[in-house]
Amino acid sequence: MFLDLLRRRNPELLRVAAQFHRDGLIPPNTYVIDLDAVTRNAGYIATEAARFGFTPFAMTKQIGRNPDASAAIRAGGITHAVGVDLECAVAAAAGGLATGHLGHLVQIPRHSAATAAALNPLYWTVFSEQKAREAGAAALELGREQDVLARIFAPGDRFYPGHEGGFEADQIARVADRLDAIPGVRFAGITTFPATLFDPESGTAKPTPNLGTLTEALHELEWAGRHNIVVNAPGTTSTAIFPALAEAGATQVEPGHGLTGTTPLHAVQDLAEDPAIAYVSEVSHLWNDRAYVFGGGLYVDPVLGSARTEALVLGAQDDPATAVPQQVDMPDASAIDYYATIPGAGAHRACPGDTVIFGFRPQVFVTRGLTAGISGLSTGNPVLAGIWSADGSAPLTHAADGFASGASGTHTVAHNAGSNS
């Protein structure tokens, strides 16, 4: 889906990723991230957010909570992260991003409230008064009051299966009063997900009924005499949808795929954010005229439907910018993704050890994939910042084989890919 976009707008990422793999610096099953592009994207998002009066919180789950990417995001001007779950918030904090928002989409478990409160989150979303009481008690233990957002819903709102929960939107004024009455808690605003979704037929991002629910709830709160209400409106977040969110009354945005140029909109339109991530693997073996490609991170976010997947199979002298993409048969969703297969291996002369590069919309945190940030692509001096596991921790690496450990973010490998890469 995003392979052509990468080839057009960021071919140097593909060239350097291929060269680093050939040199043994990057193992197969690794998502490579252009840290310079992430910083540029974060900077543009931060600038546009300020223009619209938004507070941006970075979502890092899609890029495996990579701490080098977190540092790149911060360098671009986004200082806080949203944690889709507690582990996400902890990993982002370890990477240098303060906790802007947690509890949404995943509520904080009862016995983890103290850990969550210790992150000093700016906002904490609750789906119920019980969860608000847990947040308040944990905040009081630290001698402070916690701002909370109420997750709301109304008839006709759209939620992914398993994401449901929250307060009835038409009762929001009463909900705000009840939350304010809980010790350690201050009602600060409202949230939902998704506020916008990609529409395949029109090729645009459109508001969901949920966004209208937020606007109506905001008006009810203002009519009840409440002001400076936080309106958190995540979903398909890139600068392209900022005008619609501003019109609806949003005050917070949470770019995730926008930081790597991989929202569904980026697949069909050239937007301001540059594509900044690719998946690198390797041909393992050949069998029945098929090339078997190492997997582990072959989860393609299904938001664009069952799109055809292609990859570049690269020999030692092949240039990713001119190589012909090959169709890939991806593992069935019910199978463990040990391998993907590429038919017609003989026709395109695939060999074991060849580099294979994919471009698709990732959700690294649900995979066994690794991540590797590369800095210096914009200056022609690429540096491998480190290799990390899908949860943002340092993996058990094979240092003798040349793979770089990302432990503590201090072990780096420098490599100039040269003019022929």
Description:
The protein is α/β, with parallel strands linked by helices. The chain is 26% helix and 24% strand. It is built from 11 helices and 22 strands. It has helices spanning 3-9, 11-22, 35-52, 67-75, 86-94, 113-118, 129-141, 172-180, 209-223, 242-248, 264-268; strands at residues 30-34, 55-56, 58-59, 80-83, 98-102, 123-126, 146-153, 167-168, 185-191, 196-199, 204-207, 230-232, 252-253, 277-287, 290-294, 309-314, 326-328, 339-343, 355-358, 370-375, 383-388, 413-414. Strands 1, 14, 15, 16, 17, 18, 19, 20, 21 and 22 form a 10-stranded mixed sheet that branches. Strands 3, 4, 5, 6, 7, 8, 9 and 12 form an 8-stranded parallel sheet that branches. A two-stranded parallel sheet has the order 2-13. Helix 6 (113-118) links the parallel strand 5 (98-102) and strand 6. The longest helix has 18 residues, at 35-52. Residues 407-421 have low confidence and may be disordered.
Stretches where pLDDT is under 50 for at least 5 consecutive residues are 407-421
Number of helices: 11
C-alpha termini separation:
24 Å
The number of E-state strands comes to 22
Give the overall shape. elongated
Strand content: 15-25%
Helical percent range? 25-40%
Structural class: alpha/beta
Q: Largest sheet at a glance?
A: 10 strands, mixed
* Overall mean confidence score, pLDDT: 93
Cα-atom radius of gyration = 22 Å
